[in-house]
Design brief:
Layout lengths: L8 E9 L5 E9 L3 H5 L11 H7 L6 H4 L8 E8 L4 E10 L3 E8 L1 H14 L27 H11 L7 E8 L2 H8 L1 H18 L5 E4 L4 E6 L4 H17 L9 E8 L6 H38 L4 H17 L4 H13 L9 H4 L7 H7 L2 H10 L8 H5 L21 H16 L10 H10 L7 H12 L17
Antiparallel strand pairs: 1-2, 1-5, 3-4, 4-5, 6-8, 6-9, 7-8
Length: 489
Amino acid sequence: MEHISKNDFFLIFKGIFNTEGNFEDYILTKTSDNFQEVSGMDPNYILGEKISKIAVEEMNSIKLREIQKYMIPNTKKKHEIYLKDLNKTYFINIFSDDRDYMIIFYTDISKYIKEIEKLKFKLQYSEGEVIDFTKKDLTRYKDSLTRLYTREFFYEELKRLNTIRQLPLSLIMGDLNGLKLINDAFGHSMGDKALKRTGEILQETFRDEDIIARVGGDEFMILLTKTDEKTAEAILERVKEKCLERPLEIININISFGISTKTNSKENIYEVLKVAENKMYFNKLKEGKQAKLSIINYLKETLQKITFENKNHYERLKVMGLEMAGILNFNEVEIEEIKLLCDYHDIGKIGVPKKILQKKAKLTQQEWRSMKKHPEIGYNIIKESREVISIDELILHHHERWDGKGYPGLLEGKEIPLVVRLFSILDSYDAMVNKRPYKKQMTKKEALDEIKNKAGSQFDPNIAKVFIELMKDTKKFKLFNEKELPVNY
């Protein structure tokens, strides 16, 4: 689920077992990036520790000791908790995966609690009374952006329609994949368009009597009376088909769904809803990655059309990068990072005005300030896709200099990751020896002399020396020829 609150966070635990294969405990293996900011606790002190230990010693602010009793292998639990130290109310979602892993999501619902209490006071319920919205003006219960129903309306209709004569009653939870990525890459106006398009597709597909609501930033709930689960699944297939048929400026609308159906009057309707929500979360873990990758690759393809850097540029960087990676004894992670950095380093330029990207003359100071923001824009875009492309920090720093005078100017010298120090040389060399409309193309010798002159200021002097020797030895660097690498060397 996309975070609709900066206060949401998660913890991931791995189960440990004795020699007989019996479950003993959980150890903490990962926390969300914002865990320390929200909880005030340094994760480095508790990562790798058993839950039985840290629940007692360290986790008072998020009441992990109270949650521990629900952490049973092969279970799913959800409940509400008020964290006094944080002064916030959270929904706690606990999921386990065949006894090996367990994820605990903390979702901040404080503002919704306040809104619901205000609504209850305003409508002045009498105990046990259910408001019949069908007799009221429904415009006030419509989401202003999508024109779908609101969360409050959905829950009241859920109470009203939770009767024997409406069975089977199917509930659907949906989550729009990649909304924050769309907002970061294209701006919130594009994110709003994506939400509107989602609302349109849902309204076109479901019946007029079905209750379709937007219940969060990117979350939707649908209530279908007298509808079994098989029928609900068939309807969702039509929704997915329409999402493919109606892309938003070539970006596909991608929604993860979960379905659950009440067939017996004794079933608790809210437990049925929880089942649908749990199914949606697990489907999102699987489908969300591909949706984000699709958006990022579309951004990359768009950039190739509006900038002077084409596919050959990325391929040349990878050829040089992999050759240097072998000489510098990069490990497998660093090799993968240099390949990804070559492919996605300039993804943040999607946030730079097109007229600046395509300008053939020298940039003004104001235009240059806009251009220098692209590493931070790229960082924010890729940060939302760490599970797919985990190089957000490298993108942020790919224009840093050895002397600390690069941008955004956060690192210098060996503080800059080794992969970035190598990439800086590759990117600069390729820009110098290939045609650019805004500056003169250099010869191979002139470019290598430039790198040599700036070794120790712009570039890591040791890597620069190795690169220069490699590029001078054309026999050793056999991949650099017109047949396999069509560039002007």
